[in-house]
Amino acid sequence: MLQQFDERNRNLLVNINGALIHRDQAGISPFDSAVQGGDAVWEGLRLYDGKIFRLIEHLDRLRGSAKALAFSEIPSHEQIITEIRKTLEANSMQDGAHIRLTLTRGKKITSGMDPRLNQSGPTLIVLAEFKAPVYDKGGLTLITSSVRRFPPDCLDPKIHSNNLIQSILANIESNNAGADAALLLDKDGFIAECNGTHVFLVIDGEVVTSHTDACPEGITRQTVLDLCHANKIPHEVRKISLTDAYRADEMFCTGTMGELAGVVKLDGRTIGSGEVAAMTKQLSALYLVETTNSGYAIFESRG
């Protein structure tokens, strides 16, 4: 689904290593590791009424990914939060914003892959935009991609890196098929995730999702599992196949960008009744309450 340009974003200020720069002038060095080899980690955050949902969990995942990639220097949570706050205040954002947080290994002294060429510390980019949830809540159409998600022995998905070529290739396939998104399988043919979201099925009243062997440890995914547990909704994490999806009563995707979004068609098969159904609506409502009642208050009290 193609996102539309929001006029409120025309004069955004982007934060690059603490400097606020107009979007048309913002840039990083061609020697930066993100440019040289996609050597960076990232997080997507959402701002709800002055609070960022699951901020600390996202920052923990960012730090964990950077540690796994052996970044020699990682900004503290406090440093990153300071830069996020500064960026939001500069853009007068209080609600309905999405924040793309990127941490690269930094600038190299000369072109090359060797991390020893990085001698000036990391690059932190805070890009905040006014952006509503990106998926149509009326129901998504998916196709299964020919692209397979890597298992941990090829590239561990627990590293939330800027290497998104698999997702982009799958997105090209879904665009060409006229679908909203693409479903990716693991190397054994079990469902991993979509090109940008995690996947849940509802089968006989039970909410089911796949293991994270071949997909990231999704924060929205975990929130849904926690909501199921708190509300005594039967749920299970296990291997699921395409046939499980085709004959499921409901199917939905989860992610920071799209929150919860029902799936009504997969590979030409109608899922359930062909409409966003009861369990998806119930969990969407519970998620809305969670985002309303929790979150990290990003703005300091003026009292």
Description:
With 303 residues, this protein is an alpha+beta fold. The chain has two domains: 7-130, Aminotransferase class 4, branched-chain amino acid transferase, N-terminal domain (D-amino Acid Aminotransferase, Chain A, domain 1), CATH 3.30.470.10; 140-291, D-amino Acid Aminotransferase, Chain A, domain 2 (Alpha-Beta Barrel). 26% of the residues lie in helices and 28% in strands. The protein contains seven helices and 16 strands. Strands 7, 8, 9, 10, 11, 12, 13, 14 and 15 form a nine-stranded mixed sheet that branches. A seven-stranded antiparallel sheet has the order 2-1-6-5-3-4-16. The longest helix is centred in the last third of the chain and has 16 residues, at 278-293. The termini are far apart.
Brief descriptors of the model:
D-amino Acid Aminotransferase, Chain A, domain 2; D-amino Acid Aminotransferase, Chain A, domain 1; 2 domains; alpha+beta; globular; seven-stranded antiparallel β-sheet
Describe the structure concisely:
It contains 7 helices and 16 strands. It is an alpha+beta fold and 303 residues long.
